[in-house]
Amino acid sequence: MRPARRRTLVQELKVCYEVSERRAWQVLGFPQASHRYQSVLDERAELQMRLRELATIRVRYGYRRLHIPYGQNIQARV
């Protein structure tokens, strides 16, 4: 179950049974870290998709050879 769905279930429990958030997480058996987790979108998703596409086309190239044209974009993250 995704964290967003878990959060909605906990909110429903809080409202219906008037229990604390901590108690609701405990009753459902979910880790509280799910409540605080916020997903982060990867800014390089487009680059990753392009590299996967190239890897399927050029199977024998290997990651080093595929990264050569995009080297500047990849080094920018470091």
UniProtKB/TrEMBL annotation:
Domain of life: Bacteria
Protein's name according to its UniProt entry: HTH-like domain-containing protein
Organism: Gimesia panareensis
Classification of source organism: Bacteria, Pseudomonadati, Planctomycetota, Planctomycetia, Planctomycetales
